[in-house]
Amino acid sequence: MSSTQVDTVSDGEPGPGRGGPSTPHGGEGYQRGLGARQIQMIAIGGAIGTGLFLGAGKAISKAGPSLILAYAIAGLVIFFIMRALGELLMYRPVSGSFSEYAREFIGPFAGFVTGWTYWLFWVVTGITEVTAAAQYMTYWFDVPQWVSALLFTIILYGANLISVKIFGELEFWFSMVKVTAIVGMILICVGILTLGFSDAGDTATVAHLWNQGGFFPEGIGGTLMTLQIVMFAFLAVELVGVTAGESKDPEKTLPKAINTVPWRIAVFYVGALVMILSVVPWTEFQPGISPFVAAFEKMGLGVGAAIVNFVVLTAALSSCNSGMYSTGRMLRDLALNGQGPKFFTRLTRSGTPLVGTTFSAALMMVGVWINYQWPGEAFNYVVSFATISGMWAWVMILVCQIRYRAKADRGELPVSSFRAPGAPFTSWFALCFLALVVVMMGIDPDTRISLYCAPLWAAILLVSYRVLRARDPQNAAFAKR
């Protein structure tokens, strides 16, 4: 790519947080190429990924049918988080929203930590998803996982360099495949329960939800221990906040997308799990195997299992594609605010953050090495750290919404046109729930490693910020607006 194809933000341009407020509609140089159709499907597909299709297998083995209740309660918390985000977005819809709000309502260091942590979350998530995709490929081909992981990373990187319209179109069809598959799965299960066809027809019954050791076969403790897996499944629902700067009509499309959260969770998580666990007893599912694939195999529908495996492969690639998209935008937001290298501000003529996306994709190649070294444990190694880093963005959304609401109620800031119902009490409840998840992660030896990594990452950020402040005090210590 020649230098004439790349636009660079001028050194004197005050980005958001650099001496002047952001424009109401982003104004970061991106093209508004995401329409209502694409935003809706990005919002729907963001909550349907590897955490449901692959991680649910391990969660079912730990909690049994009570996993349904865990998803329902966690889904309510996610709705509170998304409405808090929606209130902030309608106050000021900007790309890189999480770090922008953290800078404004908490301080420049909070924005620095949030931006870099959310970037790391998507890098790690990209590794997680490409790992899952590589595992799905072994269903058909006897190919080493690292080969598939490398191929997928290269393809998605190339797709993300074209334009945001291509990203949006890919996500639309990825999400359409996932939605169609889950709805189809639910309808098939309903048919088995009512008409009794397939190999599982004679034994399928809703009573499986309580006959195999009760609804809580592993006790309340077993259910609580699945919260980390459950919350990982919901990571990426906040992606609509990153798309704010490239949405054609954010004031209309974003609230509509956020308000779909309750029925998304009710259908795609609660509904799907109720159906699967009614057709196949929970004791027959195993960790590391997609419950959707396993359910079709138990039904004797071999072709169906192959189709579902293709769908879950699509889901993993969709999430990785979203990671490629968001990491470049977050790095550019940091660079515009003087909290990252200036070369990350570079955009192609099609509005793609070339350098940031390339840098992130290069780091995602670490996933290829992980798949080469530990093909069996790769997914579990990275999923817990992705959860703790992703939840940081949720915490910042809630804290910023609480502070924004207080200022708006005092008349210091304009009132959002999309106020979160029940806030700030719902936001405080969500914060307490996230704290419970962290406690459970510390108790579980399988997820405790993420809590060991978090202080190390925090130390790296603290040292980096001190160096940044010493070299460029004006940007690093930008006062809260």
From TrEMBL:
<feature type="region of interest" description="Disordered">
    <location>
        <begin position="1"/>
        <end position="29"/>
    </location>
</feature>
<dbReference type="GO" id="GO:0055085">
    <property type="term" value="P:transmembrane transport"/>
</dbReference>
<comment type="similarity">
    <text>Belongs to the amino acid-polyamine-organocation (APC) superfamily. Amino acid transporter (AAT) (TC 2.A.3.1) family.</text>
</comment>
<dbReference type="InterPro" id="IPR004841">
    <property type="entry name" value="AA-permease/SLC12A_dom"/>
</dbReference>
<feature type="transmembrane region" description="Helical">
    <location>
        <begin position="425"/>
        <end position="443"/>
    </location>
</feature>
<keyword id="KW-1133">Transmembrane helix</keyword>
<feature type="compositionally biased region" description="Gly residues">
    <location>
        <begin position="14"/>
        <end position="29"/>
    </location>
</feature>
<feature type="transmembrane region" description="Helical">
    <location>
        <begin position="179"/>
        <end position="200"/>
    </location>
</feature>
<feature type="transmembrane region" description="Helical">
    <location>
        <begin position="449"/>
        <end position="468"/>
    </location>
</feature>
<protein>
    <submittedName>
        <fullName>Amino acid permease</fullName>
    </submittedName>
</protein>
<keyword id="KW-0472">Membrane</keyword>
<feature type="transmembrane region" description="Helical">
    <location>
        <begin position="378"/>
        <end position="404"/>
    </location>
</feature>
<keyword id="KW-0813">Transport</keyword>
<feature type="transmembrane region" description="Helical">
    <location>
        <begin position="300"/>
        <end position="320"/>
    </location>
</feature>
<feature type="transmembrane region" description="Helical">
    <location>
        <begin position="220"/>
        <end position="240"/>
    </location>
</feature>
<feature type="domain" description="Amino acid permease/ SLC12A">
    <location>
        <begin position="39"/>
        <end position="468"/>
    </location>
</feature>
<keyword id="KW-0812">Transmembrane</keyword>
<dbReference type="GO" id="GO:0006865">
    <property type="term" value="P:amino acid transport"/>
</dbReference>
<feature type="transmembrane region" description="Helical">
    <location>
        <begin position="145"/>
        <end position="167"/>
    </location>
</feature>
<feature type="transmembrane region" description="Helical">
    <location>
        <begin position="66"/>
        <end position="85"/>
    </location>
</feature>
<dbReference type="InterPro" id="IPR004840">
    <property type="entry name" value="Amino_acid_permease_CS"/>
</dbReference>
<feature type="transmembrane region" description="Helical">
    <location>
        <begin position="105"/>
        <end position="125"/>
    </location>
</feature>
<dbReference type="GO" id="GO:0005886">
    <property type="term" value="C:plasma membrane"/>
</dbReference>
<feature type="transmembrane region" description="Helical">
    <location>
        <begin position="261"/>
        <end position="280"/>
    </location>
</feature>
<keyword id="KW-1003">Cell membrane</keyword>
<keyword id="KW-0029">Amino-acid transport</keyword>
<dbReference type="Pfam" id="PF00324">
    <property type="entry name" value="AA_permease"/>
</dbReference>
<feature type="transmembrane region" description="Helical">
    <location>
        <begin position="41"/>
        <end position="60"/>
    </location>
</feature>
<feature type="transmembrane region" description="Helical">
    <location>
        <begin position="352"/>
        <end position="372"/>
    </location>
</feature>
